[in-house]
Amino acid sequence: MNKNNLQELVTKIQQKHHQDKGGKNASYIPYLASVPAQLSALAVVTAEGEVYASGDSDYGFAIESISKVATLALALEDKGSETVRRKVGDSPTGLPFNSVMALELHQDKPLSPLVNAGAMATTSIIEAKDKEERWARILDFQRQMASERVVLSDEVNESEQTTNFHNRAIAWLLYSAEHMFCDPMEACEVYTRQCSTLINTVDLATMAATLAAGGKNPISQKQVIKPQNIPHILAEMMMEGFYEKSGDWAYTVGLPSKSGVGGGIMAVVPNVMGIAAFSPPLDSAGNSVRGQKMVHELAHTLGLNLFLPK
Ligand code: GLN
Fold first, then answer.
1. In angstroms, rounded to a whole number, what is the distance separating the alpha carbons of residues 287 and 241?
2. Which among 18, 103, 169, 234 is least buried, having the fewest CB atoms inside 10 angstroms?
């Protein structure tokens, strides 16, 4: 597909869905309830660094759980895949992102780095001498994968830090079962900050494109992630990126993807492109309703399902 046609397709799909109804903004984080629900954007960044975008693609929204992918990638750089696998786990839970029952069922081991429990455990194994260094390394890694425009929002952070009681409880449960590898409240606080950065849809597509391009950010041209870590990250995204709806997504779209309750979705087409969509209203699992429709339609139209025979 040539450049004009791809831009036309991105625009057409974004416009087609931008008024679709259905879903609700996340409300358990007060900031997220106040984001205008009509916002929507779709973007593609190719493995060669070409950018295509439509809609509110420069609106900065809260990255939320998509941050779990960047912290996982950093943990793999720091510790290697066998340590991450042993300490955090590598399998889907089949349960909601903040499930305590998932912990109960597995002796308080989180299983997946992409649910809240596993993400906090992953944050806790990042190499750092103290909380501020842990945070600085994670923020820097988000920026390297996406862009220098990624910033912490004090407003989102304040909104989350003052309401994250459930995550604090999960952090203590992990600690009591020896699945937490730094002070549990430090891990929870840094995890909450990593969820509170603002990213726009083009920069999110760049983050996905970094994963698509073997760990090299196609805009900055910097090798951010070791190529051998990419398959582990994409496997986790395929299995758990949409929580209890990850199976539906794999069945219908067939791309490793990750959602956040800020309304963002990123999807990776290995060696080809990163796709990102944004729109705040969510389904019951916390995945953007319009975002799913936009990514699904784009991937389907371009025949990008990884499991399609050639
Ligand atoms: N910060 C949110 C939380 O921990 C992220 C959840 C999400 O995006 N699914 O609850």
1. 10
2. 169
